[in-house]
Amino acid sequence: MTVARTSGVWRRWRSCSAARRFGTSRTWRSRFTGIGFTLDYDIQLYYRRAKQLQLNWWDSRYLEQLIAADVLDRDLPRTIPDPFTV
Amino acid sequence: MDLKFTEEQEMLRETTQALCRDASGVDVVRQMENDPIGVPGTLWRRMREAGLMGILVPEEHGGLGLDLLSCVVIYEGFGRALAPGAALWQCGDERAGDREGHEAQKKALLAALGGGETIIVPAWLEPDGGYGHEGVQLLAKRSGDGYRLRGVKRHVFHAKAAQRLLVLARTGEGRRGRSLPRGGGCQRAHVRAAEVHGLRHRYRVGFEEVAVPASARVGAAGSGWGTWEAAMYRGIILLAAWAAGGRTGRWRSQCGIRRTASSLASRSGAFQALAHYMSDASAWMRGEGAGL
Question: What are the structural domain ranges in chain A?
Fold first, then answer.
């Protein structure tokens, strides 16, 4: 099984004993296969690109900050009732 | 409201898809994962020939001068094929150059970008810096007729393929962005590979008293962050289009595996659920979630 080396799964995999690795490998191969991050399939390419975009070009937290600032910091009248005063 | 794409936009979509089908197959994408340069020659050449390098560059500067929606169509096609290369980062540079560069600078910068002769990549993020202007701590000290840069940038994509870097720097009193030539006065910029997520073309760039002429600065002094932020607000629309294309590609790939892969003597799709938030989003948007 080929696992993306940057994933947490890879780190856990390395820390396992040989017997457990064999058992886990068989389980993954036969039942779960882990195709979202194994290098054997192409889907991991999409997963890693999605993660790359998320981490490098304004992540969710920063975008939420921008939206919150735009909605809450303006001096314009509210468009929805204030839940803390209703 | 007319939500249909125009004929021209449909043509752009077909052109992009055909181009990616021919020059950016999965084999090319996988090859570029381990390539320190990360820009496939054939795809880059075909993009230049099709004029796709200057889609945001105004016509008077030699580009196509397309509107944002047409660019979205093109970037969705690139995302679907996971097209490798530096085109993804060029959009921010084009906007920054178009918005703030003085006329001579604008002419040179945009013509080079639009023609695809020059690759300019942004060097923005810094270690532990965050995405806001506070994160820009690379210092630009005034020195004679120019500046001297000192600091570190990380997550610089395609730094080895680039002829120039668009570096965000701080002068102390304001926030600035400037275009910095690699080579010439830039011998002390150390480009070091920083493989994250398995990509070999992502770099950490260290600046040690790198001399930059004042004429290389993009826009007026102190206007750098405003320029960059404005470019980002437009750039993320194209990045979102790229991600939406990737989501479609992933969804197709996922369905293909479920149809073909077998395990325990039966098709894996018969008993196994697959999930990824982007594919789920795609299924939800198409209203096909129940059919998966």
Answer: 8-72
